[in-house]
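quick one before i forget lol
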Amino acid sequence: MTALVIPTVNINGTPAADLIEQLSAVCHALDHAREAIGLATPHGRDFQMNGQGLAEQAREAFRERQRVLARMSADFMDLALAIQSQGRSLPK
């Protein structure tokens, strides 16, 4: 994935607080999606007639997607923290 680029907080741009709030909403949505995937993860009983290993393969596919969303959430949180640290260094 292409790395996220940290915006430069300045008086002509979006306020840092707004950017952080928006990124927090993204993290919350991704975390909610991860939880939903967890609830939807296939159960072995749904694969009883489909051969060996398919249930585990199906569960791993869901876990893999949860890991992708977790990485994305962490990236957006890191971006929010980088923006927050810029806001502290701005002149008053």
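fyi Residues 16-89 form one domain.
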